[in-house]
Structures are given as C-alpha cells and as structure tokens.
Amino acid sequence: MPFRDPLTHAQLRAIRERQPWNPDVVALLWEVKRLRAMMLRAYQLSGEFRRPVGVLANCYDEYMAQLVVEPCVLERDADVAEMLNAPAKPRKGIGER
Fold first, then answer.
1. At what angle do helices 23-45 and 71-85 cross, to 10 degrees?
2. pTM of the model
3. Per residue in 24-47, is it b (16+ CB within 10 Å) or e — as a string?
4. Tens place of pLDDT for every residue, the chain, 97 residues?
C-alpha cells in the first residue's frame, strides 16, 4: 500500500489550528517537525554522501530522488530563493543615490 502524499507546512498548520486543544495532535506535530528537520539535515549533507556501489546504489538513487521532492526541502529552497532575490533594504542614514 503506497504512502499518501506528504503534507506541506501550510497543511500541518491547518491541522494545528483545527485542533489546538488536543495534546495528542500537538505531540504528533512536534514529532513531524523533528522528522522534517532531520530530512532537511540529510538534504544539507547529501552533497557529501558518496554513492555506494553494488546493491545499495539503487536504494541511494531512490532516496536522493525522493529527498529533493519532499515538501520541507522544496519549501526551504523556495524560502532561500526568495531571500536571495529580495531587494536589499536601504541602510539607515543613507539616502538613495
């Protein structure tokens, strides 16, 4: 049986807002946050992982392909791109030229 599609940050926030009083939901969402952080750390380190040879090569390729399409990775990349493309804020005391 295949997994359901992964949830985005917005979907997780909506779940939290629907049940703010439920401690079980809050505990599960904290666990999801921890697991998303681990996925981001794996993505950050993925450039340093050496591709194994032999039987594990296919598992490695599949894992790396799945890692780059995780919502937390896509959201992080979008946030970074947005920050890099944002116009620089003028510094205080310095007028426009």
1. 70
2. 0.77
3. eeeeebeeeeeebeebbeebeeee
4. 788 999 999 999 999 999 999 999 999 999 999 999 999 999 999 999 999 999 999 999 999 999 999 999 999 999 998 888 877 777 776 666 5
Rounded to a whole number, what is the distance in angstroms from the first to the last CA of the chain?
Answer: 62
Distance between CA atoms of 68 and 42, rounded to whole angstroms?
A: 10
**DSSP assignment, residue 92?**
T
How many Cα atoms occupy the beta-carbon half-sphere of 8 within 13 Å? 6
